[in-house]
Amino acid sequence: QITLKESGPTLVKPTQTLTLTCTFSGFSLTTSGVGVGWIRQPPGKALEWIALIYWDGDERYSPSLRSRLSVAKDRSKNQVVLTLTNMDPVDTATYYCAHKMAASSSFDYWGQGTLVTVSS
Amino acid sequence: QSALTQPASVSESPGQSITISCTGTSSDVENYNYVSWYQQRPGKAPKLIIYEVTTRPSGVPDRFSGSKSGNTASLTISGLQPEDEADYYCFSYTASTSLYVFGTGTKVTVL
Predict the structure, then answer these.
(1) Which of B33, B46, B64, B82 could lock B40 by a disulfide, CB 3.0 to 4.6 Å apart?
(2) CB-closest option in A37, A46, A96 to B89
(3) A38-50, pLDDT tens digit by residue?
(4) Are B95 and B32 in contact (CB under 8 A)?
(5) Residue B98 — very low, low, confident or very high, per pLDDT cuts 50/70/90?
(6) B100/A contact by beta carbon, under 8 A
(7) Which residues of A touch B (CB under 8 A)?
(8) Could you give the CA distance from residue B56 to residue B54 in angstroms, rounded to a whole number?
(9) Which of B20, B111, B110, B14 is nearest to B73 (CA)?
(10) What is the pLDDT, as a whole number, of residue A75?
(11) How many angstroms separate the CA atoms of A44 and B77, rounded?
């Protein structure tokens, strides 16, 4: 059974760096085609895809966040870490990590999400 | 990379059918079968209900179906049920850029 769970701070100050960890089980991030994606959703607004890391280490980022965003995987811990620098109140959102299916471009399993508020 | 365009809201009575459109471009929806659909109930994580335009994951009721014509993908819910009231998002992979994009989202209300 595949599970994912996001963890990290619930409150960050403007200009600070956000670090979120996605801890997963039930799959390997070494399996060809598999990936872990990050999606965020500001309160009351639409979903926004922001990043994806593939089984081979390839990383993809939303163009609007590329300069501030990075993702990395720790295979030994079954974790993917998201780092978003220079946080702003507009970055306030629920952040989800999700499992990308090996033979598809879709996310079939999602974490519960974690709400991150940016405020001084 | 612009969001795919969906209607903001759709309402219909139980037992009826609705169709939600998702309009993209030749860079995503039109030329690739990488469209998926997600259902999101209030306070919950999204749930995959259709992938690769027409495929239903195991456990998703067959009243949910997907299709595509040109640069517009569609999600049809037949025999609308009260539990179908939720937000629905389309999602596409863009092979030319290897990036991803969600639709603007549609709120479905069961009257």
Answers:
(1) B46
(2) A46
(3) 999 999 999 999 9
(4) yes
(5) confident
(6) yes
(7) 37, 39, 46-49, 52, 60, 62-64, 96, 101, 104-108, 110-113
(8) 7
(9) B20
(10) 74
(11) 24
Give the residue on B whose Cα is nearest the Cα of A6. Answer: B45
Distance, in angstroms, between B9 CA and closest chain A CA? Answer: 13
* Locus of tokens 């479905």: B108
**Chain B contact set for A60 (CB, 8 A):** 98-100
Can you name the residues that pair with A97 across neighbouring β-strands? A38
Contacts for B71 with CB less than 8 Å, ≥ 6 apart: B23, B24, B25, B26, B29, B30
**Helix ranges restricted to H, chain B:** none
Count CB atoms within 10 A of the CB of residue B15. 10
β-bridge mates for residue A19, sequence order: A83
Helix, strand, or coil (residue A105):
coil
pLDDT class of B84 with cuts at 50, 70, 90: very high
pLDDT class of B82 with cuts at 50, 70, 90: very high
